[in-house]
Amino acid sequence: MRSSMAWKITKHLLNNEMIQYHLLKGKDHGLFPDHLPDTIVLHYTALPSLQKATAVFDDPQTRASAHLLIGRDGAIIQLLPFNRIAWHAGQSRWQKRQDINRYGIGIELDNAGRLLETAKGYQAWWGGYYPEDEVYFGTHRHETIPYFWHGYTAVQMETVTEICRALYSKYDIKWILGHEEIAPGRKSDPGPAFPLDEIRSHFDDRSAHEPEGENDPSIPSPPKRGYVLPERLNIRSAPDAQAQLQGEPLLKNNIVDILGEQQQWLQVQTTTVGWVRKEYIQIIS
Question: Which of 37, 102, 153, 252 has its CA 20 to 30 A from that of 175?
Answer without folding.
Answer: 153
